[in-house]
Design brief:
The chain has 523 residues and is of the alpha/beta class. It folds into 2 domains: 234 residues, P-loop containing nucleotide triphosphate hydrolases (Rossmann fold); 240 residues, Rossmann fold (3-Layer(aba) Sandwich). It contains 21 helices and 10 strands. The strands form 2 sheets. A 5-stranded parallel beta sheet has the order 2-3-1-4-5, sandwiched between helices. Strands 7-8-6-9-10 form a 5-stranded parallel beta sheet, sandwiched between helices. Helix 2 crosses helix 10, helix 11 packs parallel to helix 20 and helix 12 packs across helix 20.
Amino acid sequence: MFESAEIGHKVSKAQFKEQVPALREALLEAQATLFAEKKVPVVVLISGEDGSGKRETISMLYEWMDPRFLSTMAFEAATDEERERPDMWRYWRSLPPKGRVGIFSGSWYSDPIRMRIMGELTEMELDARSAQINRFETMLINEGALVLKFWIHLTEKAQRARFNALESDPHTAWRVTPWHWERLKTYDKLHEVSSHLLRMTNTANAPWVIVEGVDDRYRSLKVGQVILAALQAKLGAKKPAAAPLNPMVRVDTDGRNVLTEMDMSLNLPEKDYKAELGKLQGRLSELARDPRFKTRSMVVAFEGADAAGKGGAIRRITAALDARQFQVIPVAAPTEEERAQPHLWRFWRHLPRHNHMAIFDRTWYGRVLVERVEGFCTPADWQRAYSEINDFEHELVDAGTIVVKFWLQISQEEQLRRFKEREQIAFKRFKITEEDWRNREKWDAYQLAICDMVERTSTGDVPWTLVESNDKNYARVKILRTLCESLEQALDGSGGKSKKVPKAIKALKESKITKPGKNRNKN
């Protein structure tokens, strides 16, 4: 892929001086429009060999563009905080909001290249990382981002000459260290790995721009012209027609689905509930203090019908934990800051460190539930969200995070009873809103969306636990027992797979359960 960047491109001083003023003016104009419209985030990756001019290219952009609307993120070795999260966490946190340009010096390509050169990744693993990167960049573009990827290239001979030139000048000698000369010895391996990775990630959505780095004036003009052309094309483009979609059709031929098959009559008597609750809270407390948890983290995701008891279940979990060890994240409509980012951004930012838990009261599944049913996003948006969510959760699991997610289901009759109860009890009135009543009118549409969600995102690594929640005692104990089973299994080294979750459910069903009746319980 580097042939066109090895032919000796040059721009004379006179040509450079003639072209730069108009280019700078146009860049500033495009940048002002970008910021005023606040519809598009711009992600610029500056990559390449050592000494190729990456630093100078970034400095040039700050000189030619308005620095108030630029941000630069430089990534080197991960910090302790970053190593305790998934690899992509630090990049997600650094994404620019709509209307701004984010320049990445070092990016999600740096670690795969380094690890492959060091022999820490096989070629097959490198290809898997390439596919993951392609999906990530496609997601950014589907969310409206402009992604520009520059690889500034030097041949081995040109790189050696650049090092010698820098080293011979007292003003720049500090920029060349023994480490750089040592790295030069791996040039052939870098060339092999980078050319392979660039080929695998050179997509129609986010193509690579290879720039020869020998001549500074050529490099600067080339990068500036590409950024200007891309900005003008993006800002001037009409909204593209919606991509054709295969219709997502659901037919329950016999009228049965994962929700209709739930036994909503399951009930746990108060005496047995109190005994089980104390025992399971103690067990959860011990597991959270297990030394093995110091190198793991946990994400607990709660979704459910309105008034299904998510808040009460969460309080029974947190009662067993040290307050320094968990965070409860209530999720509502996105803020202005969150709307300026991809829809998963606000969840990535809350991922826990090792030895910590993040408990989400409503989650990233809003895209395929409320946003789908209420029409807050397009069909293309929520249909692609299933695979984006699966990628997100699998990245968490690959990083050692224990992910447990619950859907709390209640019947329409029980929901109505709880709604009316909330209206009658003063300290519960804040829980019932007009929106809750409106959502109830769309019960069937939500049931359809829930079934699709479960079927498309209940994976081997991160299965859904469906909780029969007409009886709060039963639901709370089932949730606590499932959490304990999942934690034990993960800490024992089995990776948190789903095969033991049914056993947890079975154990609960075999406990002293009665049909509903006298044991109506309150929060």
